[in-house]
Amino acid sequence: MTLKDCKKEEKMDREFQKKFKFEGSINVLTQMMVDPAATEKRGGAKNLPLRRGEILDVIQFTNQEQILCRNSQRRYGYVPRAVMLPL
């Protein structure tokens, strides 16, 4: 990874922490897959866009309805628990 890529990732992580009021370091708890039978959804202000079969990194289990996740493009957002499957 180049220095430019590292700086870009650090900036994205800082923006995530500010937007979601996330304290501490960003640790991946586990990985989960979006249900292949789920409908694809566009992302919103704080929601992550969903693609069928996509593998997401789980950052935080926020409540009974949502999980805070990161996708392969290093974008962060909430995902409904109902469409997530354990790997």
From TrEMBL:
State the source organism's domain of life.
Answer: Eukaryota
| InterPro entries, per database record | FYB1/2-like (IPR043443), hSH3 (IPR029294), SH3-like_dom_sf (IPR036028)
Q: Which residues form the Helically-extended SH3 domain?
A: 16-85
The signal peptide, as residue positions, is: none
Q: Which GO BP terms apply?
A: integrin-mediated signaling pathway; protein localization to plasma membrane; T cell receptor signaling pathway
Q: Which GO terms describe its cellular component?
A: plasma membrane
Q: TM spans, by residue?
A: none
Supply the alphabetized keyword list: Phosphoprotein
Q: What is this protein called?
A: PRAM protein
User: What is the source species?
Assistant: Eulacestoma nigropectus (wattled ploughbill)
